[in-house]
Amino acid sequence: MTNPLYDTLFGRHAGADTPFLHLPDGSVLTHDAFLRMAARFAHLLTDRGLQPRDRLAVQVPKSPQALALYAACVQAGIVFLPLNTAYTPSEVEYFVSNSGAKLVVGDPTAPKLADIAHQYGAQHMTLGADGDGSIANAAKSKSETYPTVPRARDDLAAFLYTSGTTGRSKGAMLTQGNLLSNAETLVEHWRFTADDVLLHALPIFHTHGLFTATNTILAAGASMIFLPKFEPDAVIAALPKATAMMGVPTFYTRLLDDPRFDREATRNMRLFVSGSAPLLAEVHRRFEERTGHRILERYGMTETNMNTSNPYDGERRAGTVGFPLPGVELRIVKPDTTEEVPQGEIGVIEVRGPNVFKGYWQMPEKTAEELRKDGWFITGDLGQIDPDGYVVIVGRNKDLIISGGYNIYPKEIEQVLDEQPGVLESAVIGAPHPDFGETVVALLVPDGEGPDVEAIKETLRERLANYKQPRLIETVSELPRNTMGKVQKAALRERYAKTFA
Ligand code: MLC
Ligand code: AMP
């Protein structure tokens, strides 16, 4: 193969008149039409001077064109760098400068991105929700065939930024081999065939919607009902035409809140997959009661794609994430050691395999802290193995909040809060939330006259993405600390455990 990822996901569908995307307006985009669009985009990127290994940063609404940009990057050997559409310009500025992106594609309604791109010597183009913008115009006249650039499995395919406990985001470098091995494994493991129709309501700028869902469908030659976002009316209307769905737990709790979601609505479905955040065992049971389907829960990460999955045929055990996927090794070690804990005990989950990323872009020290020389990746998740070998995630050894499937690192919010007038110090924690799983609570210790909370909310909105905004900001006289002076976040979490219940 000359370009393993392109050939397997895309190239082999050339000329195929089979459906790839079922769109909300009732139209269908075939695999072949999609590939021709991607080829035009690949020419456009190359004509703009992008070479293999250059980065293309993309912050655009979900659309077939946005997916075609991903395919174009794979075909031309360009590294695809998708960005959450909720990121503020100041967040995007960091990603553009850190990645050294050569071209930034943004929504036509986000003019600030052009200034950011130019400030860092990058070009700027636009792509809107309807496929409008300068990309479409410039690609119109390009050829619909593109000579695929040869690549090796170890070559980079994508950068996905993930926040860190220090508050600085790190660009996880994913190779062709990382993405390809996982896609092929998931097709087998979850039994995808060309007849499947995946209901796709996830965003396409993160691992779940882009790789776990889209790559698997492409590798199977299947199709997707491509919804712009998760919206219960549209999802319930589309369910009878779908065979499978992937979602974060919030999708499933929201569906269960809707009386129309029942056995009848899900009669043609063969598979519901959940991941990106813990699925409560109770939701798993309610789901089965209502629909007769048992959700298949799996466990993954930006740095590793999918690591474990409940079995397709065997028991899908609530409250567990199943077994390591074929080719993936998993061990549970004592924190800060490589010593495995005795069977059944809790420790830090480490994984190794062809799915594990290559390291963090230009951060050798961070890479060394999390990726051992012998290939084991320290996930920072705490887990145990039950007597039957099922992996159970019991918590996190990292200060991280997961809200509606999005990761939020408290440090990033605390850094902004600590800079505000009237704030001596702050602590940000996750509190259980019925819709989002967890939600952000910020505690401020006042300094002098104390903080202006409304002004702080405004600053947070300017600086940080909407899903990182605290649902509650409270002032407290002091933060609980241990004898080492470290803030006891567990005690704070306990205090706010029932606030949103
Ligand atoms: C939106 N909001 C959120 C939020 N999403 N707040 C907290 N957490 C979230 N996840 C905010 C909005 O900005 C808005 O704020 C308010 O909540 C109400 O919005 P909404 O209309 O209810 O939100 P909605 O658009 O419906 O989005 C909710 C959601 C969405 C759950 C559908 O967040 C989503 O699609 N999540 C999927 C995330 C995902 O794909 N994760 C995979 C990561 S990969 P305001 O103030 O404007 O009213 C990974 C690896 C792996 O983790 O294992 O898969
Ligand atoms: P991200 O960095 O966005 O890829 O998020 C990865 C993190 O999501 C993991 O380290 C876990 O903490 C969490 N995660 C993913 N899937 C699950 C799951 N099924 N159950 C619990 N946590 C999960």
Description:
The chain has 501 residues and is of the alpha/beta class. Among the domains are: 4-17 and 29-151, Rossmann fold, CATH 3.40.50; 400-495, ANL, C-terminal domain (GMP Synthetase, Chain A, domain 3). It is 30% helix and 25% strand. The protein has 15 helices and 25 strands. The protein has helices at residues 4-9, 31-47, 64-76, 89-99, 112-119, 134-139, 176-189, 207-220, 232-238, 249-256, 281-291, 364-370, 410-418, 453-463, 489-495; strands at residues 19-22, 28-30, 55-59, 79-82, 103-106, 123-126, 156-162, 170-175, 197-200, 223-226, 244-247, 271-274, 296-301, 305-309, 323-324, 329-333, 347-352, 359-360, 377-385, 391-396, 401-403, 406-408, 423-433, 437-446, 472-475. A nine-stranded mixed beta sheet has the order 2-1-10-9-11-12-13-14-15. Strand 12, helix 11 and strand 13 form a beta-alpha-beta unit. Helix 2 (31-47) packs across helix 3, helix 7 (176-189) crosses helix 8 and helix 10 (249-256) crosses helix 11 (281-291). The radius of gyration is 23 Å and the shape is globular. The mean pLDDT is 97. The chain binds malonyl-coenzyme A and adenosine monophosphate (AMP). Adenosine monophosphate binds at residues 162, 207, 275-278, 297, 299-302, 321, 379, 381, 393, 396, 402, 407.
